[in-house]
Amino acid sequence: MGSERMARDVAPPGEAVQPLFPSAAALSHEVAVIRSEVATSPGMKDLPTIDLAGADALARASGITLLDFGAERCPPCRAMLPMLAALADEYRGRVRIAAVDCDRDPAIAERFLVRSMPTLVVVRDGREVGRVVGQRPRAFVAGVLDRALAGDVAIAGP
To answer: Largest CB tally within 10 Å, which of 44, 47, 71, 99?
Structure first.
């Protein structure tokens, strides 16, 4: 199989290389696009989205803050929002949870050294104590928050 792929990628001198995937114009079927709004679950709530000043204030605040770094174009980020909103309700008064849109405010992502989305950064009393990269189930994130509340540092999992 490796030699077949190489044969298609390398063309003899003077001939064009054939692409492995057809261009969009070469597709023979039509692509359907939903042009109307799609309703979300009735109980789905959004997290408060913060800007650079808000992120700095939350990061310096006493107590525990969970910053959710994501973007609207990121499917795993969107999938985690309802779960994080539920955790925000469950941990109300003990943990602050806020979202950061990396597309709108890339300076915040740069300041927190975020390289992938979604990334959850746990800050306690102005210092980062935990970080989770990638989509995780509710129990995993709740375990991270419980460890932060218990005083642990260097948290990467429950």
So the answer is: 99
CB 78 within 8 A of CB 40: no
Cβ pair 97, 83 in contact under 8 A: no
Residues contacting residue 19 through CB under 8 Å, at least 6 positions apart: none
Catalytic residue list contains 102: no
Active-site position among 55, 59, 77, 148 = 77
Average pLDDT of every residue of the chain: 78
Q: How far apart are CA 157 and CA 122, in angstroms?
A: 11
Give, for 28, the enclosing helix (H) or strand (E).
none
Active site residue 77: yes
**Structural domains in the chain plus CATH codes:** 52-150 (3.40.30.10)
Whole-model pTM? 0.69
- pLDDT of 39 > 70? The answer is no
